[in-house]
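Field log, afternoon session.

UNIT: design team B
ACTIVITY: writing a sequence onto a fixed backbone
BACKBONE:
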């Protein structure tokens, strides 16, 4: 029982720093760069993605033994799109301003590689509880990354934060930070900081060792070693 709790705890926390989908795995770059001109937009997109990720992971995990392998991908897309449609209706009805701010990027959650990747790599191979923990952890990590990026860009680029005006900063905003180039720069700095804190080092040697497709690649004439 203790081992099981430890395993669930690991699945719940891995997405916050160690396997953060944005800052470590570099997934979901489109919404990360597009909607983080304001902190509230980052929170909104992060929570919406977490809702879809949690719902789709639970359903896909529960149906993993029923869904035929040949229609696995279309089935995943339908399930994910259903939750995206639901969160879209809810946000349009109760949070219309945020819905307008997120625009098309809310709909594009359907093809967000974070959600589809967790469905394919985790939910389709694990139980409901573990899949739910995985979704919550990845969702929290994604939300925190977007909130952090949005906060930095909004404070420096607009001199505001969550609707509050920041003295001095508001008089001399660096508009570059709310432009696309500022988004790339902010993301790069945050990724570098996270790598420094986690003491993550770049690989010293590039090889196919450990890759699950190494044998198949070698048989097809690849250069795996």
């Amino acid at each position: 029982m203790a081992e099981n709790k430890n395993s669930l705890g690991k699945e719940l926390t891995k997405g916050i720093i160690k396997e953060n989908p944005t800052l470590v795995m570099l997934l979901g770059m489109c919404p990360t760069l597009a909607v983080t001109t304001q902190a509230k937009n980052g929170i909104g997109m992060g929570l919406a993605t977490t809702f879809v990720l949690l719902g789709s992971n639970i359903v896909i995990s529960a149906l993993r033994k029923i869904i035929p392998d040949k229609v696995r991908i279309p089935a995943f897309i339908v399930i994910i799109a259903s939750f995206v449609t639901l969160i879209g209706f809810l946000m349009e009805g109760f949070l219309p301003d945020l819905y307008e701010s997120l625009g098309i990027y809310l709909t594009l959650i359907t093809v967000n590689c974070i959600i589809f990747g967790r469905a394919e790599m985790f939910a389709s191979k694990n139980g409901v509880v573990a899949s739910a923990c995985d979704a919550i952890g990845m969702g929290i990590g994604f939300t925190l990354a977007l909130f952090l990026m949005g906060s930095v860009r909004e404070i420096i680029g607009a001199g505001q934060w969550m609707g509050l005006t920041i003295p001095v900063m508001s008089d001399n905003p660096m508009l570059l930070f709310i432009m696309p180039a500022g988004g790339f720069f902010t993301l790069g700095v945050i990724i570098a900081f996270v790598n420094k804190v986690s003491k993550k080092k770049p690989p010293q040697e590039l090889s196919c060792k450990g890759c699950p497709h190494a044998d198949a690649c070698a048989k097809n004439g690849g250069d795996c070693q």
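LOG NOTE: The first strand starts at residue 160 and ends at 161.
NEXT ACTIVITY: expression trials, pending approval
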